[in-house]
Design goal:
Helix 3 crosses helix 4, helix 3 packs parallel to helix 5 and helix 6 packs antiparallel against helix 7. This protein has 135 residues and is an all-alpha fold.
Length: 135
């Protein structure tokens, strides 16, 4: 996808004449000039926690989790934790998310855990998330 987020969502940024002062504003300005494929783990984590472009954030989170189920900016499993906290009532592709969670659940013991405690915490998070979406 070659369109930037600004183009996808038809955002009018003509009124912005000053350099953003706050870190979150700088991140947002950077984000809207990226294409969907350029959105990285840090962007997705912020999108989910800030509830910004949530549909796109969920889709990218699913792509990242399919490659690295324990992805996180600050700790293993953080992305799944952020995704589990999102209100998914209006998410259109819940079936794909359910398939992803089942796949992760089937392979959770094969992931590269730093400790047994981390695996247990992640498994509990995954189970709670699966229950939340009636899986």
């Amino acid at each position: 996808m070659s369109q930037t987020i600004k183009e996808i969502y038809s955002l009018n940024t003509d009124n912005q004449n000053d350099e953003p002062e706050y870190a979150l504003d700088k991140w947002y300005d950077s984000l809207i000039n990226k294409t969907a494929d350029e959105i990285d783990l840090e962007d997705v984590s912020r999108m989910l926690s800030q509830n910004v472009f949530i549909e796109l954030g969920i889709k990218r989170a699913m792509e990242i989790l399919s490659e690295d189920p324990i992805a996180g900016v600050f700790y293993d499993g953080q992305l799944l934790e952020l995704l589990s906290a999102v209100d998914l009532d209006n998410f259109k592709d819940l079936s794909q998310l359910k398939l992803l969670l089942q796949k992760i659940n089937n392979n959770v013991s094969n992931l590269d855990w730093s400790s047994e405690e981390d695996q247990i915490e992640y498994s509990e998070l995954l189970t709670n998330f699966m229950n939340k979406i009636n899986l």
